[in-house]
Design a protein that fits this description.
Strand order of the largest sheet: 3-2-1-6-7-8
Subunit structure: Homodimer.
Number of helices: 11
CATH architecture: 3-Layer(aba) Sandwich
Number of strands: 8
Radius of gyration: 18 Å
Protein name: 4-phosphopantoate--beta-alanine ligase
Organism: Methanofervidicoccus abyssi
Bound molecules: ligand PTJ
EC number: 6.3.2.36
Number of domains: 1
Helix content: 40-55%
Keywords: ATP-binding, Coenzyme A biosynthesis, Ligase, Nucleotide-binding
Shape: globular
Structural class: alpha/beta
């Protein structure tokens, strides 16, 4: 579909197109359509912008990622559909590790997601040169303890040995299991009430494609800060407070809209 750039909902329509295309190509789980719609609803309530509250979470996440010894970016069908290039750029600022981890896991979807990364010539070159690693496809031979879903199958080099995991939009049970393993989990989820949001070390309540460039910018900037300064940023952040602030933001926004 040819969406005119002048359309007031251009970005949102473009993302919808990407999601639908990914479904047609067998990259997206059918339930990924529902997940996307739920995300859009929360984004309406939030005001379709990165709030100052989310920005603080983004900065904290960036500090944690720079301090990490072995960070991994976990991706599912929706994330790849919406943000393939941006995920690769962020991984390059870190140690290059991306792991495909699916709830609706099938060999066919894994293969199609791998092909989707590789069909971009720039990304293919980065994979070939070893600057980017796409894990979790042939090497998912470890099991996250106490997690029965297909998400429990992970790579030793990736999620299993990682100290910090970035999980853009997912369903809740894995986050809890990863935190129990002593890992730090940074999630990106427009729903501040979701189990993932509630269980994470840091929850960025913002739209994925809007916040990833910001996260990358702060990762780059924070590489110039010393460890004490980064640790201070992390220490001053409280995720419970963060989520409470987001709910207050939504309540106040609705009250203001209702009274105008
Ligand atoms: O690809 P798979 O097989 O791993 O399956 C992936 C989905 C997304 C289908 C699966 O993890 C799932 O069912 O997730 P949920 O429980 O629907 O949770 C997805 C969360 O992401 C919801 O809380 C949405 O509000 C949120 N969300 C959706 N789109 C975005 C988003 N958050 C940020 N940015 C978005 N674009």
């Amino acid at each position: 579909m040819d969406i005119p750039k002048s359309h007031p909902r251009y970005k949102s329509l473009l993302n919808r197109e990407k999601i639908v295309e990914a479904l047609d190509r067998g990259i997206l789980a059918k339930a990924g359509l529902i997940a996307h719609g739920r995300g859009e609803t929360f984004d309406y309530l939030i005001g379709e912008r990165t709030t100052d509250i989310a920005l603080r979470a983004i900065k904290t996440a960036a500090a944690i990622l720079v301090l990490a010894e072995n960070p991994v970016i976990s991706v599912n069908g929706n994330t790849v559909a919406l943000a393939r290039e941006e995920i690769v750029k962020l991984a390059e600022e870190l140690n290059g590790k991306i792991e495909v981890n699916l709830f609706y896991r099938s060999e066919e979807r894994l293969r199609k997601i791998k092909e989707f990364f590789e069909e971009n010539p720039v990304i293919r070159e980065k994979i070939k040169s070893g600057r980017i690693k796409i894990l979790g496809i042939e090497d998912a031979n470890k099991q996250i303890p106490n997690l029965e879903s297909a998400r429990g199958r992970v790579s030793q080099e990736g999620i299993y040995s990682a100290d910090v995991i970035l999980v853009p939009l997912e369903d809740g049970d894995r986050t809890e299991a990863l935190v129990k393993m002593g890992k730090k989990v940074i999630s990106i989820d427009l729903n501040p009430l979701s189990r993932t949001a509630q269980q994470s070390t840091v929850t960025i309540v913002d739209e994925l494609t809007r916040c990833l460039p910001l996260l990358r910018k702060y990762v780059r900037d924070y590489k110039n800060l010393d460890r004490e300064e980064l640790q201070r940023i992390v220490k001053e952040f409280d995720n419970k407070e963060n989520l409470k602030n987001m709910l207050n933001h939504i309540c106040n926004r609705l009250k203001n809209l209702q009274s105008t």
